[in-house]
Amino acid sequence: xEEKVQATGIIDSVEALEARMAEMRKAQAVFATxxxxxxxxxxxxxxxxxxxxxxxxxxxxxxxxxxxxxEDKVIKNHYAAEYIYNAFRNTxxxxxxxxxxxxxxxxxxxxxxxxTAVIPTTNPTSTAIFKTLICLKTRNAIIISxxxxxxxxxxxAAKIVLDAAVAAGAPEGIISWIDVPxxxxxxxxxxxxxxxxxxxxPGMVRAAYSSGKPALGVGAGNTPVIIDSSADIxxxxxxxxxxxxxDNGMICASEQSVTVLSDIYDEVRDEFEYRGCYFLxxxxxxxxxxxxxxxxxxxxxxxxxxxxxxAAMAGVEVPETxxxxxxxxxxxxxxxxxxHEKLSPVLAMYRADSFEExxxxxxxxxxxxxxxxxASLYIDTAEKEKMAAHxxxxxxxxxxxxxxxxxxxxxxxxxxxxxxxxxxxxxxxGGNSISHNVGALDLINIKTVAERRENMxxxxxxxxxxxxxxxxxxxxxxxxxxxxxxxxxxxxxxxLYKNGNTKPIEEKLxxxxxxxxxxxxxxxxxxxxxxLEGTAQMRAFEPDVIIAFGGxxxxxxxxxxxxxxxxxxxxxxxxxxxxxxIRKRIYMYPQMGKKAYxxxxxxxxxxxxEVTPFAIITDSDAGIxxxxxxxxxxxxxxxxxxxxxxxxxxxLTSASGIDVMTHAIESYVSMLASDFTEGTSLKxxxxxxxxxxxxxxxxxxxxxxxxxxxASCLAGMAFANAFLGINHSLAHKLGAFHHIxxxxxxxxxxxYVIRYNAKEVPTxxxxxxxxxxxxxxxxxxxxxxxNGIKGKDDNETLDxxxxxxxxxxxxxxxxxxxxxxxxxxxYFFDTLDEMTEQAFNDQxxxxxxxxxxxxxxxxxxxxxxxxxxxxxxxx
Amino acid sequence: MEFNEKDIIVRRANKTVYKVxxxxxxxxxxEHPKTGVFNEALITSYIESFGVPAAKVLYVKxxxxxxxxxxxxxxxxxxxxxxxxxxxxLEANLEKFVDIQLEVNSFRAIGLRNTFPxxxxxxxxxxxxxxxxWELLQRLAGMKRHTKLCHxxxxxxxxxxxxxxxxxxxxWAHATSGNAGADAALTYLQFTLEDQDLADKYxxxxxxxxxxxxxxxxxxxxxxxxGQLHKAKSEEEKALLExxxxxxxxx
Lengths: 875, 251
Hints:
With 875 residues, chain A is of the alpha/beta class.
């Protein structure tokens, strides 16, 4: 006849266990739908029932196990019911437990499922109450694997909690247990559950961890106590006795050794003796040694027994009322029996000549027997240094001060912020996944619901931007009349200085009585050495205002000098670190402006450096170009005065003019473009289309120069905030590898990059919450439309836009290919891979709406080299 | 084959060992299962294939209803005899003993039965307090699972010192693949039954030479003691073994 497995019957076989677990899973699935109100009602009813049964359960546990003391077990049961209920009564464990609509984050608690609980003999009923209650609170099912020695009382406790929970509405069978414990069943239950709460010895904890299921295991304790010379001796000794005798020493956090400082040793000893502890004499120590340990293992027969009984087992006669047997020993080595955990009222006592020696001893005891568990200290809390040294040295997850460690370690009795628990995590020291007191929140899965949010954006620009032909002296007036600056430092290049272009500035400063000096040796593409030279002069002069006068090079060099002047310790490699998001960068720039105000006055219409947070400097010794970017580098005042622009040579007008166009276009299609930057980008494109050819053809045309100066500054503001894209990435490296002027390099790549970015099905799109889908084609068309270009559809508009850009380039004398600028074909292709990879890694790549593949960038370079038709960008 | 009384080297309840020419024949008692003999032949063959210095298996054969295992005869004196004859050289001989043990343990015993199921069966078969059994099984479950060659009865009388200065280890019936700590614990237990002082000397030496903490070996003691319980030769021995197994885990 086929054997039938009754799922509701006794669990004494793997088959019966599996059937029960299947039923429990069904019950748990129902439980998982319960509301917080339903759960709290069940939690309260179950805690109340356990609380009421605390005395019969305590009696049962003491009788069945033959260990411990009924009265203390009553306290443990009381604690497990009342304190655990109290600690979690208001804790949210169901559904949404946390929500922040602004950030779009919601945390949702879900039960784990079916929990296995391994319950030890030392605290069977209280641990069963504790674990079943926290499982009920978290809508988990729990199956208990009791110890054979404490089986009946463990099951009785679980049954009381179950019956009360079911009566309050919990699903039937939400709590269950193995009736006939065996290791095979324990292993099965561990393997088939979702999480294990493993309290007990290292063997069980290891078995739990090796079951393959997440386990909240705890380790063995070997709590060492130090009594410092400053301690309140009466409080210390009596706390230790109180804790050590509690349930005959079976709490894992209980004291195992006391190390006493020499100067108070006798007093401590007298107090112990006075309070009923027995100091073992002569060969009694050896007798007890051989009784408490067998081959290095704890004698099962002494666990939870009274001091008197243990003494009798060892053949030592002591008064029947003896509270604790104390062995005065010297070695903390594991070969000393007294140095071990004893789970009984037997204590080791050491003498230490210094606090440091006491720490050494305690450290060793923790490491050898209770790694990660608990350490205890009695001290005057004014001794902050000693307390810190103790907390630092002890590899213990609970460090208790002036506290009985048994009642203190489990929490909420002697300290009300330490979570009450009967399962104490020992951290990685003890091979555990947790280092805190286990609570209800360890038994839930928290699902985080994260809604898409867009980044906060910004528009940052110098606090003062002055413009209009002839505005410079008026603007500079503020330095004297309003800001009362005393010492000005002008940074410029040799040509401008010798040409007398700085004269109007100097005259104005003189008129205001501002002392000034000038560093006029800025070189094109300034080097670090060059900047350091200026910095030295600046430091000597100690200006309170810096006036950068010139093109991009002079303004960049001045920014660097400013950084070094204000922060002599600044490190360039740190400042040049690439970032994904400027707000999340690793290196934070030092705050600028503490020593000097920064005024930028451009003399060319191109870089827009007067309003940007960027600067480029080359370390010629190391061969490294440092692109610096941070809003700390933003000038305080920009003065855009066309009078300073009139002498720009043709080549510069052309190259820097087309650079402005590239800034405007790239900032418009950048993923970071916003309503605040788009307007300036668009206006800049129109000004360049309308005035660059004239400014190029007739450098004396004030209107054209004026509008180009504004276009440059407007585009600068746009890309200072929306950033650029791969056109600049590619141009930076083309310029560096083949010495092509930056603006020209941009122009040579522009039409290819536009084609590439405009693809509706890019290989990869850029990553930015504001960038919802590939829409760059439309963005280019918006620029075209703003400039009066309109085809029959977006594709034709794009074609016409590109044509107009090509016409512009021709009008300002820019050639069609890289080759035409004298770049050797072989050399170009020999260095192409390296140049491409560097371009890919350029800081500008990050804001590009299309995330490029290196191979694609290489194709763009190749097409641009030969000046191929941009329509060949079919990738 | 006819066996003569004079050829007997050892006589036990379940087997008689003869030396005939260059062979040693272990003849089992008639009730002894055939599988036991083949099993020992198999284990010993494995040992041979690992390259461990041991007596070679020659055959398994039936002699008048009793199964016998034929092994190569090893010339020489056992280490036990040497230790007894030379009390003044105790240290050196013990050292030799530990060296040989460590050499044996250094082999990977791939193919041999693992210690764990064997020990589990031993413990399960015991008629003792279920909570002690539980503690023992729990202790066993937490042990590290190695695959070292463990002799299972590594004592000086199972080592023969050959005239060429070498050695051979005999009696591999209990060999398993497992944790060397268990093998050392068993040796310690055998020594303890004879001479506590010698046992302690052995353990210290083993710990030093194998660079293993004494506690590591001690952890196995309750487990190996459980396996010996049914073999206890006296009430005194039984009491000792019972004391050894009655331990609790730290918590």
